[in-house]
Amino acid sequence: MSDETFAELMQSVEEGAKILRGELPAASEFVHTGPNVKNIREKIGLSQQEFATLLCISKRTLEEWEQGHRTLTGPVRALLTIFKNAPEPAINALHGHQY
Fold first, then answer.
1. Alpha-carbon distance 5 to 46, whole Å?
2. Which of 37, 38, 40, 65 gives the lowest tally of CB atoms within 10 Å of its CB?
3. pTM of the entire structure?
4. What pLDDT digit, counting tens, does each position of 61-86 carry?
5. What count of other Cβ atoms lies within 10 Å of the Cβ of residue 68?
6. Predicted local distance difference test score (pLDDT) of residue 79
7. Which secondary structure element, helix H or strand E, spans residue 56, and what is its range?
């Protein structure tokens, strides 16, 4: 690593420490909001257990998504967006029958 690169890295680390201590404002803040899992499930009219079964996940995972304790990954966000916008085709595509 060159001296210049190392100096830039150290400057970034020092700035990060100042931001964490509240001595320097963060340049950018990104807040990613995902689909509201509970609203989607309730719109479809399924219990937590039914929706978890439909998605092939545990009820606990669904609860953690709904409470915001677990982050939604990209594929999950995409699937939930499909459920939000077209629930019946999504259900039929996954399980071939209506709930």
1. 54
2. 38
3. 0.63
4. 999 999 988 989 999 999 999 999 99
5. 13
6. 94
7. none
